Amino acid sequence: MKLKHHKRVAVTATTGMASTQLGFEATTLHHWSGILDGRYIIDQMKELYDHDDRFAAAKLRIQQTECLMIDEISMLSRKILELLESVCRHVRRNENMFGGIQVIVCGDFKQLPPVPNHRLQDDGCYCLESDVFKNAFVHHINLTKVIRQNEADLIKAVHELCDGSPSEETVALLKSLDRPLPDNTKITSLYGTNFDVNFINHEKLEDLAGEEFVFKAKDEGPQNLLASTNAAKTLVLKMGSPIILIRNISEGLFNGARGMVHSLKKDSPPVININGKIITIPTYKFDVFDMQKNKVLASRMQYPIMLAFAMTVHRAQGQTLQYVDVDCYSFFAAGQMGVAVGRVETKAEPLDDLSCCKTNTTTKLSSIVLPSTSDFIDDIPEDSDNENDDEIDLDLPTLQNPYEIQDFLLANENSSFLSVVSADFYTTPAFLSHVNFLYFKVNELTLNPFTKSTTQQWNSTYADLNTFLTSNEHSRSCQKLFKVHNLNKQQNKLSTKLMFWLFDKHVEMKAKNIVSSQLELMETREKQPVKHSSAGEAKIRYLAGACCNKISSRLRNSVLRKIGQTSKKSKIARTLDYKKNAMLKIFRIEESEAPHNSSMSEIENKQGASRGLTIVNDDVFNFFIKLNAVVQHNCTFEHFHIHAHKTFHFCRNSIDSDIELLDCWINLFGEIVDDNVEHEIFLVLIMELFKDITEHFVRIAFVDALKSFKASVPRKKKSSQK
């Protein structure tokens, strides 16, 4: 049209990334029209176009355009479409639709929906729900030819994923694509949220050689509001790292343009290369605007770029990518999976050694690689080659181990670390002496937690356990066992696994003894099972989602705080917190998947316009039903009278010693299969989540119970002075 009919055509897209793929000097629709992020109502926009010089260029573009083309229309909200139509009529002083501009839109409404922004009163409804869309676009052309892909099974898979109803063939195809990608290729990782993208970007940045340069933002206003901006509080870059613009800088440099870091200097702005164009990046002010209050609530000054090793599916829509690594667990919106798979032109070929065909597709929690046990507990110290043999032979304290070592061997029979020595080795006096030494340390470490069981005491015990495993004392015992000066990884792993196994067995034995003694001291009357009304179950389901969301929010904030920190401890903590947050995602279900029964009534009553309350699946809901029963048995008026301010800790200890409840919790995570992660680390993460989730639930229940108890206690009336 632009070339053949010589019309003044404006080519736009709803996202910066999509606009960069179109050519013809395409830009974002928001930039072309000047409506920015849609923060102003139509009357304010009219005033700005008429009297504000900052909008003069946009006003001229609207006046001169004869035909407007909008790509990726599915991501345009009803609010923005209606605002755009009104703006065009006002600027052109023409009461026809869009001020008489011919408008051509294209897109797939089965792909990504608009992103809601409730602070700007945009509920994220599709633009096709607007009367403007129905009245303006009466002519529809269905495009049926797929340009990007030509493989029938891949085309079918993309269509079915966008429809939300993948067939068994499509599921099988996706599983077959869960395989290694060729080395030395440009791989783009696609995720559902900015949080996941930020984490992965910094993980991959650490693998890139070179010096890190850190750029701190200048903030004004509450930090919780600034978290909604795309700008990083701490921007970390290296030479050669891929970046993406998150704001329009100048003509030709739009939001979504990708490039590389060209050069970095201390106390100087970064210099980037975008399509051969070298640019020194200026800082940009990112505002948090409240439409209802009509004012800026917070602002952040930062360079308008972000790392681009990974990107959200929303940013990738409209692009063609050669190799993609897709994280399905981070997706939250309809169409994300279909868009992600649809970015590629073809299926990757299998590797020559066919190792890709051996991938275990049952893994549920292996989206990232965690450090090994040795990384988790810090570096294992290595003694020098001239270490004195007498020191290795130093006698260490021992205590007779009461557990069958054969059970340990059977539990780990498929583990490679057992093969470092022969089977006869495990019956030698040297090995049994080492076991007795480890058991002595286990017994020593667990004295305090069972004498005075508190969360802080158990945390301290686990810290002491890790400290011992990195100590010279443990190292010397291993050296004595294997008759070496320098331990290899498998030798250390064998002793570490054995220590964890002894620790678990000892804690299990002591816990059973405590439970038995408590049962003997219990009153003869049976506890009546807690009966929940429909309203009670509904409240528990609501609180279950609230607890999971609260802990997930804490973990996300912890990860974001640690981004930019360079110490090994911070990096490992960041990785573990990210993994725990990923583990919690399996608890949540979509509102469309929720059961249609009375347990949803409390959520329905409290659900806001964003429909953003966390809804847990039935298995998690049943766990919270059991948890609530334990809490209710230990938060009675009788307990408050007897234990007073210690009631909370009494309740906490009852939860920690409830084996059935703990088993129920562990079963929520299903079978964990991940060769990249130590089994013990998964168990530690599961236990930490158990503590955090139950702690938050108990605090909520305890406050309600304490209020009821105080209300039941008679109060002495004050006598008046005469």
From TrEMBL:
<dbReference type="InterPro" id="IPR010285">
    <property type="entry name" value="DNA_helicase_pif1-like_DEAD"/>
</dbReference>
<dbReference type="Pfam" id="PF05970">
    <property type="entry name" value="PIF1"/>
</dbReference>
<keyword id="KW-0547">Nucleotide-binding</keyword>
<dbReference type="GO" id="GO:0006281">
    <property type="term" value="P:DNA repair"/>
</dbReference>
<dbReference type="Pfam" id="PF21530">
    <property type="entry name" value="Pif1_2B_dom"/>
</dbReference>
<keyword id="KW-0227">DNA damage</keyword>
<keyword id="KW-0413">Isomerase</keyword>
<keyword id="KW-0233">DNA recombination</keyword>
<keyword id="KW-0347">Helicase</keyword>
<dbReference type="InterPro" id="IPR049163">
    <property type="entry name" value="Pif1-like_2B_dom"/>
</dbReference>
<feature type="domain" description="DNA helicase Pif1-like 2B">
    <location>
        <begin position="225"/>
        <end position="264"/>
    </location>
</feature>
<feature type="domain" description="DNA helicase Pif1-like DEAD-box helicase">
    <location>
        <begin position="5"/>
        <end position="154"/>
    </location>
</feature>
<keyword id="KW-0238">DNA-binding</keyword>
<keyword id="KW-0234">DNA repair</keyword>
<dbReference type="InterPro" id="IPR027417">
    <property type="entry name" value="P-loop_NTPase"/>
</dbReference>
<dbReference type="InterPro" id="IPR051055">
    <property type="entry name" value="PIF1_helicase"/>
</dbReference>
<comment type="similarity">
    <text>Belongs to the helicase family.</text>
</comment>
<protein>
    <recommendedName>
        <fullName>ATP-dependent DNA helicase</fullName>
        <ecNumber>5.6.2.3</ecNumber>
    </recommendedName>
</protein>
<dbReference type="GO" id="GO:0005524">
    <property type="term" value="F:ATP binding"/>
</dbReference>
<dbReference type="GO" id="GO:0016787">
    <property type="term" value="F:hydrolase activity"/>
</dbReference>
<dbReference type="GO" id="GO:0043139">
    <property type="term" value="F:5'-3' DNA helicase activity"/>
</dbReference>
<keyword id="KW-0378">Hydrolase</keyword>
<keyword id="KW-0067">ATP-binding</keyword>
<dbReference type="GO" id="GO:0006310">
    <property type="term" value="P:DNA recombination"/>
</dbReference>
<dbReference type="GO" id="GO:0000723">
    <property type="term" value="P:telomere maintenance"/>
</dbReference>
